[in-house]
Amino acid sequence: MNKIHFVDLYAQYISIKEDIDRAISNVIRETAFIKGKYVDIFEKNFARLYGAKHCIGVGNGTDAIYIILKQLGIKEGDEVITVSNSWISTSETISQTGAKPIFVDIDPGQYTIDVSKIEEKITSRTKAIIPVHIYGQPAELKEIDSLCKKYGLNLIEDCAQAHFAEYDGKKVGLFGIASSFSFFPGKNLGAYGDAGCILTNDDELADKMRRFANHGGKPHHYIEGINSRLDGLQAAILDAKLPYILQWTEKRIEIAKKYFERLNKVDSIILPRITPHTKHVFHLLVIRCDNRETLQKQLDKNGIPTAIHYPVALPFLPAYDYLNHKPEDFPIAFESQNKILSLPIYPELSDEQLIHITDCITNFYK
Ligand SMILES: *Cc1c(COP(=O)(O)O)cnc(C)c1O
User: Fold this and answer.
1) Is 187 helix (H, G, I), strand (E, B) or coil?
2) Whose CA is closest to atom 2 on ligand 1?
3) What is the spatial distance between Cα 282 and Cα 46, in angstroms, rounded to a whole number?
4) Rounded to an integer, what distance in angstroms lies between the CA atom of residue 195 and that of residue 59?
5) The pLDDT of residue 35
6) 3-class secondary structure, 56
């Protein structure tokens, strides 16, 4: 049996080596390193495959959120509502604009924002809501969208972990005014370095964001901007992977199903809730379990790497000490952070490897 990785990016490279090598050498031969043909091609292809009007390639998924917020005019004195269980990019970009991040607890079954707890956080300063489709599981967009409409708020989706996930048969990333994607190497669609993009159907916002991301627009700098561009090599690599992304996504779902079948009888484990109106794309397979640290050690001894996403929920990070949040403010997020465990999942994970992993877990709780 091959060595089990947490994600096996080399195995993926080997499976499409010719495509990737050709993409890289084309960019080098044409020295199309910044902007240029390959960025245009990828932006068009990703937008088309996704069914969005505009795709704006940017430096990474964090900048994508920041650029959206800035160009929607979010500023000091404003509040932006987001979820307590995410990667820090979601909230640090809110602070970077000068606005205040307002956290909401999570739903215990699917780890996304608890929609029943959003309305009580809305004030006259609230300007936007950023749900995160965490682990590949869509947040409850219907309820969030109607709250945004009711209070006149911008809906911004953080899709960093949820490329091609669906809610009510429609892809996530198409519900709000704009959405952010990360192509960090380990994401479902990953570059060979930092990369990201923004999707929007709004022409004017698209122009503003494109300018802002590239020094305020060249040659005339209408405004001061930032330097956050998708580079040519990353764009060409991403474009070479695009023909495979849908089959890789189905493979993840298939592997998750096998995990579920083999683990659903283990009492000490809670599997994520799967809802019929959403398509979970399993960027991560996160279980809740008893004796997590001991299980993790046992799995490690058996050659099975695991991870925790995330060991400390956002409101309890030292960076947010100044907000004075207490465990009882976000009880579900607080309880989950000590129970969650991410198991290896990637399209190249074999049946043999999966059986080894699930056998080790089952034996541990016997
Ligand atoms: C990865 C990630 C980001 C940021 O993406 P980068 O490309 O690493 O900047 C943002 N939000 C979430 C939820 C992520 O997982």
Assistant:
1) coil
2) 160
3) 20
4) 5
5) 87
6) strand
**316 is written with which tokens?**
């309890």
Q: Which of 63, 60, 104 is nearest to 82 (CA)?
A: 104
How much is the pLDDT for 222?
Answer: 84
Report the atom number in ligand 1 closest to the C-alpha of 187.
Answer: 1
Protein residues with CB under 6 Å of any ligand 1 atom? 60-62, 86-87, 89-90, 132, 158, 160-161, 182, 184, 194, 196
For the segment 200-214, the average pLDDT, to the nearest whole number, is 97
Question: Distance between CA atoms of 84 and 90, rounded to whole angstroms?
Answer: 10
- Antiparallel, parallel or unpaired: β 154-158 and 126-130: parallel
| Residue 180 CA, ligand 1 centroid: distance in Å | 9
Element holding 252 (H helix, E strand): helix 232-263
272: pLDDT strictly greater than 90: yes
Name residue 83's amino acid: V
pTM: 0.97
**SS3 label, residue 279:** strand
Q: Could you report the per-residue pLDDT of 35-67, keeping only the tens digit for each? A: 899 999 999 999 999 999 999 999 999 999 999
Q: How far is the CA of 265 from the centre of ligand 1 (A)?
A: 33
Task: Using most ligand atoms within 8 A of CB, pick from 62, 83, 112 the residue to mutate for ligand 1.
Answer: 62
Best of 156, 158, 308, 309 for a ligand 1 pocket test (most atoms within 8 Å of beta carbon): 158
Side-chain-side CA neighbours of 106 within 13 Å: the count stands at: 28
- Which residue owns the Cα nearest ligand 1 atom 7? 61
